[in-house]
Structure formats: structure tokens, C-alpha cells
Amino acid sequence: MIPFKLLFIINPKSGNSDKSRLENQIKSVCAKNNKEYAVFYTTGENDSEKMRKKISEYQPDTLVACGGDGTVNLVAQLLLNSEIQLGIIPLGSANGLAYELEIEEDIAESLDIILRGKTISMDVIWINEEFICLHLSDLGFNAKMIREFEESGDRGMLAYAKAFFSSLMDKKTTEFSLEFNGTQKDIKAEMIVMANASSYGSGAVINPGSKLDDGSFELVIFKPIPLRDLLSLTLESFLGDIKNSPYVEIYKVEEAKIFCKEAELLQVDGELKGENREVKAEVMKGAIKVISS
């Protein structure tokens, strides 16, 4: 659907990019292409309620999330099973969903995609009947790395790298019990990913062959990995060949339950959601209309 009336939701705190010129670029591009637009800045206080009111008053056909994956998720929550489409200007530290949709981090190029890209009806993972996951959610190692990243107070890919290596020193194996596809499986793992997408914003592919609109998601299980094999597994992930690793199991599912022997930290689209002993996940097919390249 070609957008005609756009509402830009800008998170001024996303990532470490300068937002000062963003509104001028939006104004210029929309004027050049005869598009009606409005701008809304998040504050971190009652944003969802305020956005709902703005949407009701303005009646846009397209909401554009200007921020990182957390901002995109916040906006998408308002669009479940809606005819309003979602556009993305990636301004966060990792921008995982934008990476998946091949949306450039350059503002001018991402604006061009919003005006001329294609719209797909993508699936969403509904987690614990409370959170939606557009991209990737996980229990274990990566969630702890995100906590390390947030506690550092730094931003950008270098800060992610520092958090990664710091978390390596404290990685651990946990016992899980899984229910999916009519089966029950007890495992030991360092991380379990509920993957709607194929890769993290860093470019590390953990779910090759993934599709955002196939009516399913994948459980990606990372079994205990000796440090001597960690480098080879990392290289395999960036080469998109992780499915052949003896330390990784991938299952295509429509719903799953995960029971943790010990409470595990859960992250959803880059946002921490506390420690959980049980996680229930199910697919919501074609729940969001999103603009991709």
C-alpha cells in the first residue's frame, strides 16, 4: 500500500545517533512527494496511551517507528491486526528487524523505502500472553549479555562487543523442558531462542532459512559449547551455516512451552522482561503489515 498520511513516532533516546536533523529530512521528503505527515516524540511516560490518542485523532495509514527494536515493538503493539502499516527508520544500536527487512540505517534511504517499498503481512510471536516478538526473543546467554550492555551505560556495536566478551566469562548451562509439535524434550542448553527472524542486528545468523510470513517460528537451541569451539560456531553463524553445528538444534513450530529448572532472564526484541520459570510462545499469523525493501 502506498502511504499517503504518515505519523512518525520518534524516540529521541534510541541509540547514539543525532536526531536533530531527522525532522527536517522528514519534512523535506514528505513535501517533495506530496505526503501528509505528523510527528510524535516518545517520552517514556504513558507513550502507548498517548500514541493511541494521536492515532485516533490523526487517522494515519502508516506509522513510522524512528528508533531501535524496542521502539519498533512499542509501535507495533498498536497495530496488531490493523490496516495501518508499519514503517521503520532504524536509529537504535542494533536494529535487528530493520536488518532483516533490508532497511538501510541511512535516514534518506530508509525514507525512500517507506515511500516506495513493498508491504508484507508478517507474523508475530505472542509470549506469555503479554508480549509480542517481531524479531527474536531468548532465554539465557544473550539476555544476560543485553543486561550487561544496559548496565554499562554505553551504546553502539562496540559496547555490544564488550558486553559479549564479558558475558562469555560467566556463561552457564541450564536444564530446560520443552513442549512443541506434540512432543516433550528435556535438554541442557546455554540459550534458547524463539526466532521469528533469521539473524541478530550484528549480522550473526542463528536461524537460516527463516521467513517472517510463513505462519511459524523456530525454536533454536544452543547446547553447551566448549570454549575451544566457540570461535568456529561464531564464524558459522556469520556465514549462515549454523544449522550444521553439533551444538545447535532448530525446530519449526507454531507454539511451544519452555520450562526452566531455574528462573531465566527473558529478552523480547532487545528488551528485558524479567526472570521466568515458564515461557509460552505461539505464532500470530500475518498480524502486522510492515514495509520492507
Gist?
The protein is α+β, with helices and mostly antiparallel strands and 293 residues long. It is built from 8 helices and 14 strands.
Written description of the protein model:
By secondary structure, the protein is of the alpha+beta class. Strand 8 and strand 9 form a beta hairpin. The protein has 8 helices and 14 strands. It folds into 2 domains: 5-116, Probable inorganic polyphosphate/atp-NAD kinase, domain 1 (Rossmann fold, 3-Layer(aba) Sandwich), CATH 3.40.50.10330; 131-284, Tumour Suppressor Smad4. Helix 1 packs parallel to helix 5 (107-116) and helix 6 (141-152) packs across helix 7. The strands form 2 sheets. Strands 5, 6, 7, 8, 9, 10, 11, 12, 13 and 14 form a 10-stranded antiparallel sheet that branches. The model has no long low-confidence stretch (mean pLDDT 88).
Amino- and carboxy-terminal Cα gap? 13 Å
Radius of gyration from the alpha-carbon trace, in angstroms: 19 Å
Largest sheet: 10 strands, antiparallel
Q: Would you list the SSEs in sequence order as H and E?
A: EHEHEHEHHEEEHHEEEEHEEE
> Which CATH architecture of the largest domain would you pick?
Sandwich
Mean of residue pLDDT values = 88
Total number of beta strands: 14
Separate helix tally:
8
List keywords for this structure.
293 residues; Tumour Suppressor Smad4; alpha+beta; 2 domains; 4-stranded parallel sheet; globular; Rossmann fold
Layout of helices and strands, plus pairs?
Layout: E1 5-10, H1 22-32, E2 36-41, H2 47-58, E3 62-67, H3 69-76, E4 85-90, H4 96-100, H5 107-116, E5 118-127, E6 131-133, E7 136-140, H6 141-152, H7 157-168, E8 174-180, E9 183-189, E10 191-195, E11 217-222, H8 227-238, E12 248-253, E13 255-268, E14 271-292
Parallel strand pairs: 1-2, 1-3, 3-4
Antiparallel strand pairs: 5-6, 5-14, 7-10, 7-13, 8-9, 8-13, 10-11, 11-12, 13-14
